[in-house]
């Protein structure tokens, strides 16, 4: 079950991950998945009791995308969306992908595909997620 800070709190804490890699040309790519409605999103979900947001992000990457990384890295930001008549607040972390599994838990209900950060931001429909992806792209461009 998800962790909610109090029975009167309307915010549900979630964690997600922006899985990334560098392709053969050294270009940064991020892995998006589809939700059950076919929209492009990142792996995200509930934070189980006793788990950290970082641990939950790794679990979601594995279960929803079949993406394996050795650890989550920096926190990229957060966004909110409405679900179940409540507000879900998703903390997003970056995770360098070590490998992709051929078989994973949610393979039958999701697609996954690599995109540049700019392409990924153009594909996602959730405004808050789009903002986090664009901020990540700007931060990387500024660092280059």
Describe the structure.
The chain is an alpha+beta fold and 144 residues long. The chain has one domain: Nucleoside Triphosphate Pyrophosphohydrolase. 26% of the residues lie in helices and 36% in strands. It has 3 helices and 9 strands, in the order E-E-E-E-H-E-E-E-E-E-H-H. The radius of gyration is 15 Å and the shape is globular. The N terminus is likely disordered.
Provide key terms for this protein.
single chain; 144 residues; alpha+beta; Nucleoside Triphosphate Pyrophosphohydrolase; two-stranded antiparallel ribbon; 3 helices; 9 strands; 36% strand; globular
What are the SSEs and their pairings?
Elements: E1 11-22, E2 28-34, E3 40-41, E4 44-46, H1 53-65, E5 67-68, E6 75-83, E7 86-96, E8 99-100, E9 112-115, H2 117-123, H3 127-143
Parallel strand pairs: 1-7
Antiparallel strand pairs: 1-2, 1-4, 2-3, 2-9, 5-8, 6-7
């Amino acid at each position: 079950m998800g962790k909610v800070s109090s029975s009167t709190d309307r915010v549900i804490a979630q964690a997600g991950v922006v899985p990334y890699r560098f392709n053969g040309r050294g270009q940064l790519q991020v892995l998006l998945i589809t939700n059950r409605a076919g929209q492009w999103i990142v792996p995200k979900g509930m934070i189980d009791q006793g788990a950290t947001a970082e641990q939950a992000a790794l679990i979601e990457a594995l279960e929803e995308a079949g993406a394996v990384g050795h650890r989550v890295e920096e926190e990229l930001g957060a966004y909110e969306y409405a679900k179940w008549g409540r507000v879900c607040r998703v903390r997003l972390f970056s995770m360098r992908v070590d490998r992709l599994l051929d078989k994973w838990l949610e393979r039958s209900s999701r697609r996954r595909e690599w995109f540049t950060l700019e392409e990924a931001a153009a594909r996602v429909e959730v405004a808050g997620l789009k903002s986090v992806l664009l901020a990540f792209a700007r931060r990387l461009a500024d660092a280059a």
